[in-house]
Design a protein that fits this description.
By secondary structure, the chain is α/β, with parallel strands linked by helices. It is elongated. Helix 4 crosses helix 6, helix 11 runs antiparallel to helix 12 and helix 15 runs antiparallel to helix 16.
């Protein structure tokens, strides 16, 4: 099955054919680093992390670039508010972004350029646009003239004439058209600035991505990604300025992930419902957050809620649970590379080849879990069953690598889960062990009343008991 990608530019799924066979060049818009990373940022970063992982698993040589906007009005305003240097503030949040994404098991991009490192590249493109009359100077600022680009609106589907007719854009007397956008801003007192042919100043927002993508990927590359909120005006403007400057197509495939809602409401500053990644990770395992973010198709909206995160934690427990059984009951501590991939991996790849459908892929993973548990329950000792379980484990670990989960040995995962859950309970592990031992003694003495009292007492504190052949095991209720 050929890989197909939904291309925002053509509004259709297209067979993916990279410019150079076997090589893929990807650019994804990164964060403006003026605050902590929120769950909306995390969704985009995790989505494209999985895209890159899968392409590499399919033997593509991938060059992945994700930028940092480290100079911007928001950064300058925030720095002034907190009394910091703008550069120091940006550095602080770049480091925090890396900590959050490392915790979510996101691989670093091959290149992570910063705006302040590419001022010359930006000035060169702006100069080209000015020289060819696609941009103009007005009172120290340089604006892009949208009317000079006949295809303006081709990504978003908006027509410039319609937008101007219904425009509520704030009037700037220096602009010739209300939708013209700034390429270079003249310096203001106390703000970061660099010398340019038009005087001291700094880049506008949109021009930076055109400069950095062409610097590392060339004037035309394979995939450009980001959130749906970037389609207009950011990505629309990138196309206009890049294609005007270089005289050739910019990105061939455009991928955009859907929005994150919080408890069925759109995430917005007015509702004060921006959830920061670092806060979420205090309550939930990073892999359960990843699993949640990938449980819907990347183009669909997702609803972030405690209930949905708890469901993802239960799902992750089931995945690690089958690893535990494969190890303890079938002796398969690590089947990585032990056998050829099976039908589940093939089905997973078919789902991913259809526009990176992780939602379907996760469903296939749980079909595998169900099958593995069935074999372990019914027939784990036969040679035929053993071979089937080895293949299932191979498939499971390959899927897990693409999804970025199962990074821990199962015993470490359950130890950490238990520690995390116990922190929220009014009882210690030592106290639980003492009560379990007392209950075992009561059961041995056939004091069923006391044994039931202890079980009930533990259940009231959130601890469930499981009586097995090798003794009684306990776990925190989820």
């Amino acid at each position: 099955m050929a890989m197909r990608i939904y291309n925002t530019l053509t509004k259709s799924k297209e067979i993916f054919e990279p410019m150079v066979p076997g090589q893929v060049k990807i650019y994804v818009c990164g964060p403006t680093v003026y605050d902590s990373c929120h769950v909306g940022h995390a969704r985009s970063v995790v989505v494209f992390d999985v895209v890159v992982r899968y392409l590499r698993a399919m033997d593509y040589q991938v060059t992945y670039v994700r930028n940092f906007t480290d100079v911007d009005d928001k950064i300058i305003n925030r720095a002034n508010t907190v009394g910091m240097d703008a550069g120091q503030l940006a550095e602080k949040y770049i480091n925090e972004f890396h900590r959050d994404m490392d915790a979510l098991n996101v691989m670093r991009a091959d290149r992570e350029p910063r705006v302040t490192e590419h001022i010359k590249d930006i000035i060169d493109i702006v100069k080209t646009l000015v020289d060819q009359k696609s941009a103009y100077l007005a009172d120290g600022d340089v604006f892009y003239a949208v009317e000079t680009f006949k295809d303006y609106g081709k990504l978003s589907g908006r027509k410039l004439t319609d937008m101007v007719a219904g425009s509520r854009v704030e009037i700037n007397e220096n602009k010739r058209n209300p939708f013209d956008f700034v390429l270079w801003k003249s310096a203001k007192p106390g703000e970061p600035s660099w010398p340019s042919p038009w005087g001291e100043g700094r880049p506008g927002w949109h021009i930076e991505c055109s400069a950095m993508s062409s610097r590392f990927l060339g004037e035309t590359f394979d995939i450009h990604g980001g959130g749906k909120d970037l389609i207009f005006p950011h990505h629309e403007n990138e196309i206009a300025q890049s294609e005007a400057a270089h005289g050739r197509p910019f990105a061939r495939y455009w991928m955009h992930n859907g929005f994150v809602n919080i408890d069925n409401e759109k995430m917005s500053k007015s509702l004060n419902n921006f959830l920061m990644v670092k806060d979420i990770l205090e309550s939930y395992h990073p892999e359960s957050v990843r699993l949640f973010l990938l449980s819907s198709h990347y183009r669909s909206p997702i609803d972030f809620s405690d209930q949905n995160l708890k469901e993802s934690e239960k799902a992750l427990d089931k995945i690690y649970g089958v690893l535990k059984r494969l190890d303890q009951e079938a002796g398969l501590a690590d089947a990585d590379g032990a056998t050829a991939a099976g039908n589940y991996w093939q089905a997973f790849c078919e789902a991913m080849d259809d526009d990176f459908n992780t939602a379907k892929g996760v469903g296939i993973l749980f079909n595998l879990i169900k099958e593995a548990n069935r074999i372990l329950d019914e027939d784990k000792r036969s040679l035929k069953a053993k071979g089937a379980l080895v293949t299932l484990m191979t498939d499971l670990m390959q899927m897990a690598h693409i999804l970025g989960i199962l990074q821990l040995p199962w015993h470490s995962f359950f130890e950490k889960r238990a520690d995390s859950q116990l922190r929220n309970l009014a009882i210690s592990a030592e106290a639980i062990d003492l009560l379990v031992a007392e209950r075992a003694a009561a059961r041995k003495n056939k004091d069923w009343k006391r044994a039931d009292e202890i079980r009930d007492q533990l259940e009231e504190t959130g601890i469930l008991l499981e009586d097995k052949d090798d003794g009684t095991h306990w776990k925190a209720a989820t």
